[in-house]
């Protein structure tokens, strides 16, 4: 098993980050183009805790090297199953995900959290456990794990850049909306 | 917003996503989650998506993952 961990701080409030997180993979994000679809499978607020729980299916364009595709009979898309938990009271987003594709060969379990750092900043943490499950040579398993950790790191970096772009656009659009609303209400009052 | 894996569901998904985002930022985060005005749209989107998941053979993979990931609820679906 190999572990990939990273953290960073976004210069946006937790409310902004947790809202923009739902559209992280929209066209404003030019960096994570390998994500081609995000579907919501279920969502609901837990009656006793007030925590929002949502299940999503994320579809990615496959970009594994030829030797891995050859080994397992490559498809052109892969899927990730994700559960999000949002506690609005303690202000915490937790997202747990696992790969659906190649599940017999490889297990990628990721946990992401977003929590307030200051009132204007949000702390992001990411932790992924990557385990090759196939039988056979340790050398092959190690290569698969190494490749996956490397790819994971590249996608994490791109994900961060793309999310920054989404945050910036969200703030701009929200600001314009607010301005328009203020303008309209002033016109109404006049 | 992002697309659906089933192009035929894109239109209803778009409407649902917009509804959800508005509900999330204006109600849920402000502690007013008692009403859920997006439920009818979600049902429509969900029935479109279900067909696609079955047709593409994803439903079975999902069911397995759901079982494996169940334990997360014990950790995260409670007040810390």
Automatic annotation (TrEMBL), chain A:
Name listed for the protein in its UniProt record: MSF1-domain-containing protein
Pfam family, one: PRELI
Family annotation (PROSITE patterns): PRELI_MSF1 (PS50904)
InterPro entries named among the record's database cross-references: PRELI/MSF1_dom, Slowmo/Ups
Domain PRELI/MSF1 span(s) in chain numbering: 1-175
Gene Ontology CC: one annotated term: mitochondrial intermembrane space
Organism this protein belongs to: Xylona heveae (strain CBS 132557 / TC161)
Automatic annotation (TrEMBL), chain B:
A Pfam family recorded for this sequence: UPF0203
Disulfide bond as UniProt keyword: yes
GO biological process, one term: phospholipid translocation
Keywords of this entry: Disulfide bond
One CC-aspect GO term: mitochondrial intermembrane space
InterPro entries reported in the protein's UniProt record: MDM35_apoptosis
GO terms of molecular function: phosphatidic acid transfer activity
Source taxon at top rank: Eukaryota
Family (UniProt): Belongs to the TRIAP1/MDM35 family.
PANTHER family per the UniProt record, alphabetical: TP53-REGULATED INHIBITOR OF APOPTOSIS 1
Protein name: Uncharacterized protein
Species annotation: Xylona heveae (strain CBS 132557 / TC161)
